Amino acid sequence: MNSDALPAGWQVWHEGEGRVILAYRPDVFDTEAFPAPCMPTIYVTSGSPRRRARSADSGATTWEVTLFFEPEIEATTSQYDDREAAIDGAIAAAQRLVDGEIEYRDLYQVPREDYFDKLDDLLG
């Protein structure tokens, strides 16, 4: 995956045959400034991101792109026919977050106002 194609603040956290993980501002989500589990993360997976990564020849026919704000806070999920289209979808999801198009406050049953305010500051 070409890291240069990612919007500002995003980086490739992990890349393997069956999974790519993008992380938003891992320099800030360091347990001091922000809690590490709250780092926005995009999983590009062969199959579901909740299952262990599969090898490329495992027979998976779809790729899934999921944006998480925490392990249990899923913002968006999209399916694609192949890895290349899923990578493009992940870049688009990352850009939507940076552009302020994802209403993360609506995803939480229990508001975390201090976290939201800090995330607002990061995203501009």
| Domain module tally | 1
- Based on secondary structure, the structural category is alpha+beta
Tally of helical segments? 2
Low-confidence stretches: 53-57
Radius of gyration: 14 Å
A few lines on this structure:
By secondary structure, the chain is of the alpha+beta class. Helices cover 22% and strands 27% of the residues.
Q: How is the topology of this model organized?
A:
Blueprint: E1 10-15, E2 19-24, E3 41-46, E4 63-70, E5 73-80, H1 83-98, H2 113-123
Antiparallel strand pairs: 1-2, 2-3, 3-4, 4-5
Features:
alpha+beta; 124 residues; 5-stranded antiparallel sheet; single chain
Descriptive notes:
The protein is of the alpha+beta class and 124 residues long. It has one domain (3-123). Helix content is 22%, strand content 27%. The chain is built from 2 helices and 5 strands; from the N terminus they run βββββαα. It has helices at residues 83-98, 113-123; strands spanning 10-15, 19-24, 41-46, 63-70, 73-80. It has a 5-stranded antiparallel sheet, covered by helices on one side. A hairpin with a 2-residue loop joins strand 4 and strand 5 (73-80). The longest helix has 16 residues, at 83-98. It is globular and about 40 Å long. Mean pLDDT is 87; it is low at 53-57.
